[in-house]
Amino acid sequence: xxxxxxxxxxxxxxxxxxxxxxxxxxxxxxxxxxxxxxxxxxxxxxxxxxxxxxxxxxxxxxxxxxxxxxxxxxxxxxxxxxxxxxxxxxxxxxxxxxxxxxxxxxxxxxxxxxxxxxxxxxxxxxxxxxxxxxxxxxxxxxxxxxxxxxxxxxxxxxxxxxxxxxxxxxxxxxxxxxxxxxxxxxxxxxxxxxxxxxxxxxxxxxxxxxxxxxxxxxxxxxxxxxxxxxxxxxxxxxxxxxxxxxxxxxxxxxxxxxxxxxxxxxxxxxxxxxxxxxxxxxxxxxxxxxxxxxxxxxxxxxxxxxxxxxxxxxxxxxxxx
Length: 321
Description:
The protein is of the alpha/beta class. It is 33% helix and 17% strand.
């Protein structure tokens, strides 16, 4: 039997640098870098700009919401005058205590010269504080009225917080509770009075309290929130959504059930015709009267005379002390 011949070896030396077929199959070829299209870049930049614009607009909305109240309300904290500065006796009153016993509101009780038929709850305007109403309080007291006036929250020495229509309404209700519960004054002997924005507030309060004797409105404002909505920044944001105050006078005027006296200060001239009066006055169904007061030298006497005549026509009250 013949022996198998040995397998011939390759005479070519093995080159380790040359990959085998198996190795060659797994060799990775370098891939080319991804290409970003110009359209994608433009879209991404536009999206970022849109997000930035939305954030800036939302920031503007937030700032307007936080600061728009300053376009209507102009409170001052320093009370530079008191009734004593014009020779009136008064008591400083703190009321509307919190659950912790801290008073939120500060006011003045100014007693009448003699026994008074009515107590006036006086509401000042949107600018300054109670100290700026001293002269008004003096001429009101001259009609032989007990007068109670106070600063809303955010004004004078009352609790510091920015004013609003809702908060001012709450403050007036606290003042009514003080008069009826603490001083035991009959609601039928209370006359609520206000000047400027305080007159708009007095109209709302009077409509909600038909048990009051009457309401005096001195220079009520026809469109107080126009100061907010006419601001150039209000056109850049949804101002009517961000601002809740409205100070609508027509609705409470239409629901008014007690006598009202409307006082308007004008330059020296005759009474305007009826059509010049605001719509709020025209929709009042209860007994009402309007008086034009001029800026003549005898203006104070005319005011006192108009007030005295109107008070004399009110029905007798059930005043309690």
